[in-house]
Structure formats: C-alpha cells, structure tokens
Request: fold
Amino acid sequence: MRLMRIDVLNFKSFGGEVTIPFQSGFTAITGPNGSGKSNSGDAIQFVLGTRSTKALRAENLKELIFNGGNNSRAAKKMSATLTFTNPQREDGTRQLRVDTDEVAFTRSVRLTEKGEPKSEFRINGEKTTSGEFRRILKEAGLRGDGYNVVLQNDVTTLATMTAHRRRAILEDVA
Amino acid sequence: MRLMRIDVLNFKSFGGEVTIPFQSGFTAITGPNGSGKSNSGDAIQFVLGTRSTKALRAENLKELIFNGGNNSRAAKKMSATLTFTNPQREDGTRQLRVDTDEVAFTRSVRLTEKGEPKSEFRINGEKTTSGEFRRILKEAGLRGDGYNVVLQNDVTTLATMTAHRRRAILEDVA
Amino acid sequence: RKRRLLTVFEHINRNFSRVYAILQPGGNGRLRLENPESPFDGGLEMDCVPPGKSQKTRRSQLSGGEKSMAALALVFSIQDFEPSTFYYFDEVDQNLDPFNCQRIAMLCRRRSEAAQFIMVTLRKVSLSMANHHIGITHAGDGVSRRITDFNREAALALGDAFEKEM
Amino acid sequence: RKRRLLTVFEHINRNFSRVYAILQPGGNGRLRLENPESPFDGGLEMDCVPPGKSQKTRRSQLSGGEKSMAALALVFSIQDFEPSTFYYFDEVDQNLDPFNCQRIAMLCRRRSEAAQFIMVTLRKVSLSMANHHIGITHAGDGVSRRITDFNREAALALGDAFEKEM
Ligand SMILES: Nc1ncnc2c1ncn2[C@@H]1O[C@H](COP(=O)(O)OP(=O)(O)OP(=O)(O)O)[C@@H](O)[C@H]1O
Ligand SMILES: Nc1ncnc2c1ncn2[C@@H]1O[C@H](COP(=O)(O)OP(=O)(O)OP(=O)(O)O)[C@@H](O)[C@H]1O
Ligand SMILES: [Mg+2]
Ligand SMILES: [Mg+2]
Reply:
C-alpha cells in the first residue's frame, strides 16, 4: 500500500486545484520559503485526522480554506484527498477494508450561509461518517499522529525537551 | 574598536592553544557538526561575562575545561582571551578605559587541589578584579547579554515565543 | 503498565543503539530511564557520544547538529518499533552539515525500498539523494502550485539560482 | 516606566517596518502591542505579510522560513536601536531558502562596513557572501582546531565534499 497522490482544492495556500503525485521510493519536495511545502504535509495530516487544527498552524477550520492571497478572492470551500494503492494480497484481503485497487480518502470543509465551517468525509467519492472514515484508516495502520510524520521543528523539540517529556513519548508509543 | 582575535587554551573542545583571528568586515565561520564553531562563540560570551554557565551549555565552570575527548587527558585549567583594537580618538580618549592601542581581556578557570573551580580575570596580562574587568567592558558598550550575539536557535525561539515573552524582551531593551 | 513501558523501552533502546551507530559511525548512543525501578517518576534521557568525543559527554553539551542526529536516531528507532507504509519528514536537516545530511538521506534511501519516504528539504545534498523530485512554488500572488517538469537538475538548480548571479 | 516602554516600542517598530521591507521586498511588517493602553498587560506581536500573501495573514500561519525572516528583522531592529561594534550570528539561516539566505547575508555585508560581523553558517550561499572565512574542525579525537589556509574556495568545497563523491 502506498500513497499515490495528494489532490487539494483551496486547501491553505493551494488556491484552485493542485495535484501532487508520488512514486514509490524516496521523494524530495523543495521550493522557496512560504511556497506551500509544509502545507502539503498538513493536507496529509488533515485527511488522516489530526485532532487539532493548531497542529496545522490554524486557529480553526475556517483558516484552512484558501484566503485568496493578495490578489484573489477567498474560497468558500476546500477539500483534500489522499489516494492509496490497495492491492489484493495473496489471501484475498486488502490492507484497507475497501474493495477497490485504489482508495481515495477525501475530507472537505465548506462554509454555511452563516459562515460556519461544515466538515464532510468521502471514500472513493461516497459520503461517509467521520467515524467510519477514521475506523477504516486506523485498521489499516494509518494514523494522523504517528511517528511516521515528522513536522518542521519536531527534531529540535525532541532534541531539547526535558527527560520527563521524552519519557511521556515512550508512554504514548507503548 | 574591533575584535582582533580569540585565543583559547583548553576551553571546551579546544584542547591546547588555538587562535582565531578576525579582520574587519564580514567573517564566516564554518566546519562540520560538533567541530567547535558555537564553542568559539561561547568563548566570547564567557569573557564578556555571561552570568550563567547554562547559557554556554555547561552545568558548571568545571565543564568548560577541556575534558580530553576520547584520546587525551582532561586539562586542569583553561583560559579565553579576547583582544580588541583600542585606538586613540581625535579627542585623545579611547573607547576602552585602558591606555593601550590593543587590549586583551582574559578570563580563566583553574581547578584547585580539591578540584574546585577558581576564576581569574586579567587585562593585558595583569590580574584584576571581576568587578573592574566588567566595569571597563560595560563602559565601552561590551556586554555579555546584548542582542549583538545571536545564539544557535535564538531565531526560532524569538519567532515562536508567546507575545508576552516577546514584550518582556522589549522591556529588557528599554 | 510499568511492565509494558519497560518492554517497549528495551526494544526501542536496542533500536536506538543500532541506528545511532549507523548515523554516527565511531560514536555510540543509548537511551536511559532516569528511574528504572519506577520509570514514571523519572524521565527518558539520550546518552550519546559522537565520534571522537569523551564518554563523559552529556546531551546538553552536544552541538546543534549532534543533538539533531540523536533525535533522528530516536525517530527511526520508534519507526522501527511501529513501522508504517509511508514516512513524511519536513526539513529534518536544518542544522546538519553536508556529511550528516548525507547519512540521514542515505538511511531514508535504503529504507525506501520497503516503505515510501517523502522528505521536504532545502539542502542540496539531501535533494541529490532522492529518487524523485517535486517542486512547489508560489508566484507573486501567494498561490501555491506544483512546478511542472521538475527533476533532480531543476531541484539542484533552485539552490544554485543565487550562486549563478554572483 | 510605561512611557519609556512606549518610546522604545515606537522606535523599534519604525526600525522593524524598514528592515522587514528590505528583507522581504514586496512584503510589509510591523510590531503591535496587544494592549497599547496598558502595555504590561499584553504582549508584543509581529504582524508580517510576506510578499504575495493576504493582509489577513497571522504570524502562526507563516512558514518556518517566513517566521525566521520576521524574527531576524526584529533582531536587526533591536541592534539598530542599540548598536554594537561587533555582531556574532550563530546559524541564523537554518531554515532559509537560498534567496532568503542571500538577503540576510547581503544585509550583514552592507552593515559590516560600519561594524564587524561574524556569522557561523553551514550554507553555501551565506559563505559565498562573506569577506573572510574561518574553518573549524575536529580530528577524530574531539579536539577543535582552526583549519590553516582556509578561504572562500575551501569553505565552499566543504559543502561540496559530499557532492564530489557522488
Ligand atoms: N488559508 C490560507 N490561504 C492562503 N494562504 C495560506 C493559508 N494558510 C496558510 N497560508 C500561507 O501559507 C504559507 C506557508 O506555507 P508553508 O508553511 O507550506 O511554506 P513552506 O513551503 O513550508 O516554507 P518553509 O520552507 O519556509 O518552511 C504562509 O505564508 C501562509 O500565509
Ligand atoms: N569541556 C569540553 N571538553 C571537550 N569537549 C567539549 C567540552 N564541552 C563541550 N565539548 C564538545 O563540543 C562539542 C560541541 O561543539 P560546538 O557546539 O561548538 O559544535 P558546532 O561546531 O557548533 O556544531 P554544529 O554545527 O552542530 O552546531 C560537543 O561534541 C561537546 O561534546
Ligand atoms: Mg515548511
Ligand atoms: Mg553550533
């Protein structure tokens, strides 16, 4: 199972539709400061279900919707989609409990008439509950808060934190 | 008035005598991780009088003495000397209240028989009190805690600190 | 609960010593529970001696890059304990010299045969070790886009952009 | 005491806007006391809009490099308020892209006509902008030494050391 691509629409600094395709192996992402590299990592965390928008450097869900930059109009809805390969294994099962060779997980936020953010979850385009969405990801070992995602400055934090805080990490893992 | 050179003897990772000469203008210091670049900055802070050894990444004065690395014996005393130019100005005065064209400030620590660290201060090689040493530096505008010294990670700290902490910095400066 | 923590500690500690020796050849590192009898009353320290340094070296004395290499060894150790199908690293090489950049990128490259590795980086050495390259940019209007036809040469050229003008 | 803080704030704020415009051309930045009436009850925020971004941008949304550039503008602003004869910068360019590295190094270079600038850096762009170069190394024995006959070419070669072996 691997991540095939990220598709975002009006997610943070990605105004309009942007696709970021991934191949297997080792991919490097680069570009100038402020270009959107960490925001693409935020899209991964956003879909896989980070509890708090603060981890995405946003005060609330509304701040995750493209704000227009200095030249365009702010958007009213946004979405982020992660598409994974999901091949059938020798015993006939798949790692993700969805019966397709590729599975697309979409989380979106749109603003209601009153400007309130409303979240929606889709698997392969079909609406589903946030509970089912997270259960399927969790059962396949895909979590929003795992140590497979190392955010900018996590290394410095880990290196300089107190011994007690570091032991708490061990407890989390255990 | 400019810094002419740093001379260290058994200061932190500098085993033996090492001289680092500086010219006017813009100097870059580079080298591998752990080579001693930040330790040379610690030598500057150590002489100009930082209050706490923790700012020099040491638990106490003893930790500032060369510990021998993996191959040599630990030293029993160390010293760091900063030499400044001190030209006579048009009105006959000098920025540093010492009547020489160059002034060397030396701070040293040696271990007593009991292994207790004992500090000494010298100006142009002559022993002086820590009070006089700091007064002469302070009157010339040379401080150990000024914003002219930006330590590794100070930028990240300044960028991510709370607004209250940042206002406290303003108070310090005022 | 205490037994679970001690078991996980043993496991991750073995990983840590192994990974640290790979990332800092000639050095040695291990984890230490400050209070092994009653682990929840103490913390978890990293005792690392980079190549050439005294065995008495304490973590707080380490340089910026040496601390980062220790922290990265811990990250890889936790990942070995609980493997994933993909890994995303955002600028983990900020204070690493070119040789340490290469050691981290090399380890990612080796491990990418078993799992997908995605690394955000500004460092030429790290860029040069990746198999695939993605460029992100924002035109003067703050709108993020992916750079088309981006490859290793283009990625390395971004870093040179300034040097060419010199 | 409150009047002193407000005076210093006004002065440093003017410096900040001026320096930020130099470091981030096309962007604008200013400092803000959260509670101007009673400054000690509130904090000091940096309101920065990098080039191309929305005027509604909040500091916490900024990227790593954008936050560093804001913090560096603040450092230079405080230095302008209380100038010194020498400045020592230890790896302030850790998360800057090559263009921002150059802007910081360029400002240091211009200001080094009036004061001595000493910058520790691992970045090739920053190294290439200095007048003088010092190399520090430790042989395999953990003993720090200065590299003799070190110059710009040698400094840039350290960064390439790995690339040559590729
Ligand atoms: N909702 C939004 N609409 C538009 N722009 C946004 C939004 N949220 C964040 N941004 C912008 O995204 C930028 C940060 O992007 P990001 O953190 O991805 O940069 P980066 O490429 O990782 O840069 P660096 O190399 O400095 O870490 C900020 O300038 C911020 O203003
Ligand atoms: N008293 C001492 N005796 C010997 N070595 C010491 C002593 N104190 C510190 N060191 C060593 O100095 C090293 C750190 O040096 P320093 O911080 O100057 O490195 P650096 O060149 O700034 O590296 P980086 O690029 O990673 O920041 C550590 O490995 C530490 O063990
Ligand atoms: Mg980033
Ligand atoms: Mg350092």
Notes: The CA atoms of residues 29 and 48 of chain D lie 4 Å apart. The mean pLDDT of chain D is 94. Chain D touches chain C at residues 26, 51-54, 64, 91, 94-99, 101-102, 122, 124-125, 128, 138-142, 158-163, 166 (CB under 8 Å). Helices of chain D lie at 2-23, 64-81, 98-111, 124-128, 152-165.
